[in-house]
Here is the input.
Amino acid sequence: MRSQPFHRPVLVDQVLHYLIGRGEGAEEEAAGAPYLDGTVGGGGHAAAILARCPRCRVVGLDRDPEALAAARSRLADHADRVRLRRLSFAALHEDADLRVAGLAGALLDLGVSSWQLDRDARGFTFRQGALLDMRMDPDSALTAARFLREATRVELAASLRDGQAPRPAAIAARIVQRRTRRPPRTSDDLVAVLESVLARRSTHAEKARLFQALRIRVNDEIESLRAALPAIRDLLNPGATVVVIAYHSLEDRVVKRAFGDWSDPARRLPPRLPLPATALAPLGTTLTRKPVTPGAAEIAANPRARPARLRAWRRAA
Here is the structure.
């Protein structure tokens, strides 16, 4: 028995506002296309969608079997309206049913769940003694420890730089230097590398950025997001909305650029192409000029909601 929820969903009211409004029209969608929760986690957002729209259906995807088990338990009362699949949202094209039915709307709540963060065995934390795993899919071959052991110095530096780790080149060089004697296996080993480069004790933020960069690389998070967004866009039925919640600037930048490109025909034209911007029609409309963020009350109740940034885009009718 878990003593706490798998993950407390963030910005629930805002998700429902952009995804299905107050419910008008949702009943008509219920007999056709489902809503997609591409990162179903413990099923919190999916439960809210099903409660808002009593006849709507949800397809929930996740790479983590523990997440799917938690979602299946939480959504048991709605089992006839829920279909769960162990699948990355980047592999959405593999779901034949969705290619036929399309989507009434879609949600991606990116990042790591509270359950994953709080379990040392999953290796996402820099608490002392945690093994360097970091796989969202526990059957994946690439763990954080393996990447640190096998990647070249150039690969290490590039991944750490792309993930916004501090001093990426120096950390990569120090890892390569030390792993000939003892490859990093635990959070303590990686923090020791960081502090040897900084020549002082590291701050919480510095450790978080280093572990974030490694987690992003192990799970190929940015490239998966880049692949998933246009696939979701193309599955949306006319007038349907996609909502994305990001937790760091790398993800948010990808989402902001994609929504901007889809909404502004001029941004989709190749440079120096002799065509006016009016030759292309907007694919849809960005609904959030600025990202929507949690309020003070939500942050007080759930401090992990603080970095959340929500953006929404609606496909043209």
Remarks:
- Residues 12-115+221-315 form a domain with the Rossmann fold fold (CATH 3.40.50.150).
